[in-house]
Write a structure and sequence with these properties.
Elements: E1 2-8, H1 14-23, E2 28-30, H2 31-39, H3 44-50, E3 55-56, E4 59-60, H4 62-69, H5 73-100, E5 105-109, E6 124-129, H6 132-140, H7 147-156, H8 160-166, E7 169-172, H9 177-195
Parallel strand pairs: 1-5, 1-6, 2-5, 6-7
Antiparallel strand pairs: 3-4
Helix pairs in contact: 2-5
């Protein structure tokens, strides 16, 4: 089974590409979704101990938490120490379940794959990318996004060019949708060929 990491900077089309993999019946582990679930369950207690103001109605309020940690590296590191082990636990369970089910390819969608400094059980990595102006336009279309917030997030992320150098596959999402879909199909074909060697 090939474990393919899917990553890319903010607003470079990760979700679109993930959906294309999903349409081809490739199982996807979504790290962000796992965090959402943890913020409604197992992570509420430990996060609440660190940041009581981030707990609203018995769950972690992402907006409140983001405001607390956005420009504070120490607080962000404390949060990651709590959340990352829980995310990893869910990820390993996902891999085991699909290996037992006989899957030849799974996707681990990890937005900050390179930035976390953590190692993940991956065989290959695919990165989404697009031109800087397209990335900016897409990001500014998101609710609550400001130019300042965009710059703050972008500063914390590895440059797109560096991510592409570290990837086994790179998918340009700034092209026509059918070209992006073809690139996804090519990645699936390559990974399945490797899995069946």
């Amino acid at each position: 089974m090939i474990r393919l990491g899917l990553t890319g900077s903010m607003a470079t089309g990760k979700s679109t590409v993930a959906n294309m993999f999903r349409e081809q019946n490739v199982p996807i582990y979504d790290a962000d979704k796992a965090v959402h679930e943890l913020y409604e369950g197992e992570a509420v207690g430990p996060v609440g101990e660190l940041f009581p103001d981030a707990i609203v109605n018995g769950q972690v309020d992402r907006k409140a938490l983001s405001a607390i940690v956005l420009n504070d590296k120490t607080k962000l590191a404390s949060l990651e120490k709590v959340v990352h082990p829980l995310v990893h636990q869910k990820m390993h369970q996902f891999i085991d379940d699909h290996r037992k089910a006989g899957a030849d390819l799974v996707i681990l969608e990890i937005p900050l794959l390179f930035e976390t400094g953590k190692t993940y059980p991956l065989d290959k990595i695919v990165v989404t990318y697009c031109a800087d102006d397209i990335q900016f336009q897409r990001a500014m279309g998101r609710p609550g996004m400001t130019k300042e917030k965009f710059e703050a997030i972008k500063t914390r992320q590895m440059p797109q060019s560096e991510k592409r150098k570290r990837a086994d596959f790179a998918i340009d999402t700034g092209t026509k949708m059918d070209q992006t879909r073809q690139a996804v199909d090519d990645v699936i074909t390559s990974c399945r060929a490797l899995a069946n060697q």
